[in-house]
Here is the input.
Amino acid sequence: MQKDKAVEVSGITKRYGSITAVDHVSFEVVEGEIFGFLGPNGAGKTTLIRMLTTLLKPSEGSATVACCDVVKEPEKVRREIGVVPQAMTSDLDLTGYENMDIYGRFYGISSKERKERIKHLLEMVGLSSRANDLVAAYSGGMRRRLEVARVLVHRPKILFLDEPTIGLDPQSRRVVWDFLRKLREGNSMTVFLSTHYMEEAEALCNRVAIIDSGKIIAIGSPNELKSQIPGNDIVSLTFENLSEGIVARINDLTFVHKVNIEDNSIRVYVDSGAQNLIMLIDKIKSSGGKILSATIHEQSLEDVFIHYTGKSIREEARKVSFLVGAGIPQKWGR
Here is the structure.
């Protein structure tokens, strides 16, 4: 049976003067899926989420969220969604319970239902024993879990998470991942997740849209996206003396599909990398090449991004100043 659409976006665009932060983006999200928006800082992810959650009006195009138009019916949209922004917004001077209780009051939830709902959600995120502690005493991971639990108090149909694990250490990040997986078990809620962590998108998302410079460049499940890249492994090599002749000899090998050159380094897209690595190195040595380092890895969403843009997500992320707030247009657009 075909599922209904939780989010429908058609040609949505946001301009700030001469800068186009989101450029004619179109996609659909079906009910019950975890849909990921993957791209570097400044690609347009936060601006898109702010339009879908009615905080920004589009310059052009349209979008419906939970069957409600984001421009014509913003109040209806807000009652159907939960939003966890990049910046943590829980009040440090209140307890975890008090933060959730105030949120429930905003939505007009009765006292009895609030108490039952908050107790259940705090148990779900593993914070029952810390419910009456000030949030100022929470770790970053605990505070993020509280903020996800808080936006679930009114039972939203769609949950928007904007870089939910940014700034967290790897252990805290995985705790949040485990919670989101648990949240999805036996639950029809739709989750819209933006991230620049490739492993996060692969670990959590049913489908992923890759965005760069305000445009969607690829969309599909993680496996579908990776299958679009030739070969199943990538060998990265750094040379002391890389020449065109060496690259030509590498391209002659039958198991090599593609070679990308970056200064004195190359990325070689190959079949069965572990099996063919020795043959590849022998070919380079016989061509007079001196290898300084060699690594091999299976294809990832990072490689999909490089395949379409010629640059890495990490490389782009370094260009953006963390002094500039999310969603603020700058040289690279947002």
In short: The longest strand covers residues 5-16. The first helix runs from residue 45 to 52.
